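PROTOCOL LOG
Step 1. Enter all chains and additional molecules of the complex.
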Amino acid sequence: MSPKMRNKFQSSSIALLLFVFCAVAQAKDNKLWGAVLLATNDTAPKVLPVELKPFQTRLENVFGYDAFQLLGKSSHEISDDTEQWLIPGKTFSVRSVVQPTNDSNFRVELQLYQGKKEIVQTVAKLGPRSPLFIRGPLYGNGQLIIVIMVRDDD
Amino acid sequence: MKTFEERYTAWLDGGLTGEAQTAFERELTERSESLEAPAELQRFQDFFRSHSHVTPLESPDFFNHQLLERIAAEEKPPTARSGWSLPRLAWFGGLSMATALVLFIAIIPKKSETHSQSAYIAQVISARSADPNISATAFQTDAAQPDDMTVVWLDGLDYVPENAQ
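Step 2. Run joint prediction.
Step 3. Record the structure below.
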């Protein structure tokens, strides 16, 4: 290899490494996160997960409950076009296929199962940290809410 | 006037003739300490001349050409290496890391930006249930408001016993 070619090769290698480094850094830590909340009107204070704190008021307005308790949560790394499962609680499981879109959002296909029974199929476009809420069945003296969100941190 | 050593060398090489040779041999006999050595050298000289065997070169010009090229290459002053030296590589590595860091900071969106409420994007494209007893309705509270929220509302689900979850 001539010196000129070697210099070109070295420069190209370093540029490629930089690109890969940036790409890996940008792509890291995108996760699909799922949680099961129990909404009640209990007077005892309940702590909403930090991820959902900004939605406290909206949850109260939409669902008509003022206390939200986390019953279970689960997450997995997003892998393009690969079927994956979230199991945020004993009762519910979610089959998911996630594809990043060109506008930095995600196309999420979900199948929500209650036990072995599929209760809903949905396709949604989600942005990072933009949860989709699914009103689940009644439970005890409250209501179960399933939350699906793309998180861009760990 | 040639020195003794020069005349001695000329005598050994057979370069002295006639009177010069006679005069030098006379001088040698006067140097008794040197008398044995020249005679011995003369014997060796005659021996090598009679037994020496020089292989003739098939391509003497080519041989000379190669020899001169080799000498010229060895006499050439060393040039600087064409590749990158270690310090240069180290500097470039540091520079690359700094560039990568700047790109990382510039390109990767900061958490505070992604946490902003105005960036809420959740659009339900379809929602349906295979169970005819369950209805699935999707709605967004008010996309124009900062506190909008997207919900898939399921009706017709069975009650879940309290200890099941």
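Step 4. Note key features.
Residues 77 and 88 of chain B are 23 Å apart (CA to CA).
Residues 112-117 of chain B have pLDDT under 50 and may be disordered.
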